[in-house]
Design goal:
With 187 residues, this protein is an alpha/beta fold. It has five helices and seven strands.
Length: 187
């Protein structure tokens, strides 16, 4: 499902983030995904980094700015909840540097990860099987995690894959909230 370019009819772009707890042999997954009018998803970039705290948050927000993303979608669980404040503070630091507009709030969305990895990942895997999830280019580390991760019940955490799943799930959930108005003539 690899493509060379993104379509012209994108309606949403988000940056999915899987925060690192330690930064030691644990990257922070940062993946950019967009959705078009046909409900196809496009992975535009994998900007995962070996960082935690302020450096990680600044890096994620700069990816949001670079791609003009609508939201930063971040995993929230008890172990990573402290990062929410770090993301807020980093956003306002970048506002002060002129990288985001003054008098704006961080476009931060927290994703609840109480559901297991399998439950979260299966709808995204189905999109891939249907040919509706596309890689815009080649992402060796992300694609390696996508094709080799099998430890559903373990504590192993594929950071890039998790970040991609968070972004995809957010975009897929937004599809359900879209209203469609028709007239009897449309039938």
């Amino acid at each position: 499902n690899r493509v060379d370019d993104i379509p012209d009819d994108l309606i949403a772009t988000v940056v999915g983030v899987d925060p690192s707890l330690t930064g030691e042999d644990d990257e922070m997954g940062v993946v950019v995904v967009s959705r078009d009018r046909r409900k196809h998803l496009y992975v535009q970039a994998d900007r995962s980094i070996m960082a935690v705290g302020r450096a990680a948050a600044l890096g994620a927000w700069r990816v949001v700015a670079e791609f003009g993303a609508d939201k930063l979608v971040v995993e929230e669980n008890l172990g990573k909840r402290w990062m929410q404040q770090v993301f807020h503070d980093a956003y306002f630091e970048l506002v002060g540097l002129g990288e985001f507009p003054v008098n704006t709030q961080p476009p931060l969305v927290r994703i609840d990860t109480k559901l297991g990895k399998r439950t979260r990942g299966e709808p995204v895997a189905m999109r891939c099987e249907q040919g509706r999830l596309h890689m815009v280019g080649i992402f060796p580390e992300l694609e390696d995690q996508m094709s080799t991760f099998t430890a559903w019940g373990s504590a192993e955490s594929p950071d890039r894959l998790d970040a991609m799943v968070h972004a995809c799930r957010y975009l897929m959930d937004a599809e359900k909230k879209k209203a469609r108005i028709t007239t009897p003539q449309d039938a």
